[in-house]
Amino acid sequence: MTDITDSDAPATMLAAQLSESGSIGNLRIVELPMPVPPDGWVRLKVMAFGLNRSEYHSVHGLAEGMTFPRILGIEASGVIDLDPEGILEPGTQAVTMMGGMGRLFDGGYAQYVVVPRTQIITFHSSLPWEVIGSVPETLQTAYGTLTTGLDLQPGQSLLVRGGTSALGLATAALAADMGCRVYATSRREAGLELLRSRGATPLLDDGKVAPRLREAEPSGVHTVLELVGVPTLRDSLAATAVHGTVCFSGMLSDSWTIPNFYPMDWIPNGVRLTTYSGQAQDLPAEVLQRTLDRIESGNLDLLPIHSYPLADIAQAHEDMASGRHMGKLVGLP
């Protein structure tokens, strides 16, 4: 068993801590005591962490179950620093995500994070940490949406609504890699070429995509990944074939509910509406490893990456809120 006093570890660490919700000004870099993992938990030295819309919701008071002060971050990538039970060796490369990170307990916007061992996924890769840090939660949601949410099969068609988001780009790339016909939307002309580079046929999104999509797919597409949310959901349903599926996996618009929802008016005959929101346990280790290997070999390009030092976390959040960058924002402690 490892000595949990760990005399070689620093006594303190830096982290981005949210004192209360309501403003990005409440997210500050602070020095905190080094966290010690209880039995069943491990400490990860964070080498990179992805930024997610979830944390934007937390900052602005849209997340349920938050207690304060709280270190944000629903995912982190790094190396095992301490396992009190000696099950995971120090230095083992690992990622972690979800499970209450950044909301119920302190998350990945830090130099170290303590998480349950059950939400650790190990891997081996020589990719730069900013690349590795862009993958875990985005891949988990993209893979889970394509398999559990949509049951997409090779050769079928997919529409990604909100295609230039990190999740949209990753899902489009994975679907194209499966041999599917992929269509993806962007509200900006600048995003169309990026979508094309991920193997998708780009569509400028003016809120009325279904009529144009059916020019290419007269019967409608087999599957739709809805990432924008309520404002485009009805049009996404209208673009879907009979016995096709729309999976609601994101809310980039921050519109979460449908007032006076009348299903028989909204949902076309025979079209299925599902959702997907997964956990670390929903991403098989072999899928993570295979994806990292394909990125490293140059056979798969998931995301443009924009990295920020921990000290610039407030600027990163402002850029995420404004949509300044297309792709994945990654923090480097």
What would you call the structural class?
alpha/beta
Largest pleated sheet: 7 strands, mixed
CATH level-four homologous superfamily name of the largest domain:
Medium-chain alcohol dehydrogenases, catalytic domain
CATH architecture of the largest domain: Alpha-Beta Complex
- The topology string of helices and strands comes to EEEHEEEEEHHEHEHEHEHEHEHEHE
Q: What is the C-alpha radius of gyration, as a whole number of Å?
A: 20 Å
Q: Unreliable segments (pLDDT under 50, ≥5 consecutive)?
A: 1-5
Q: Report the principal-axis shape.
A: globular
- Beta-strand percentage range: 25-35%
The overall strand count is: 16
Q: Which topology of the largest domain does CATH recognise?
A: Quinone Oxidoreductase, Chain A, domain 1
Number of folding domains? 2
Terminal residue distance: 28 Å
Describe this protein's structure.
The chain has 333 residues and is of the alpha/beta class. The chain has 2 domains: 177 residues, Medium-chain alcohol dehydrogenases, catalytic domain (Quinone Oxidoreductase, Chain A, domain 1), CATH 3.90.180; 126 residues, Rossmann fold (3-Layer(aba) Sandwich). It contains 10 helices and 16 strands. Strands 3, 5, 6, 7, 8, 15 and 16 form a 7-stranded mixed sheet that branches. The chain has a 6-stranded parallel sheet with strand order 11-10-9-12-13-14, sandwiched between helices. It has a 3-stranded antiparallel sheet with strand order 2-1-4, with no helix packed on it. Strand 10, helix 5 and strand 11 form a beta-alpha-beta unit. The two termini are 28 Å apart. The N terminus is likely disordered.
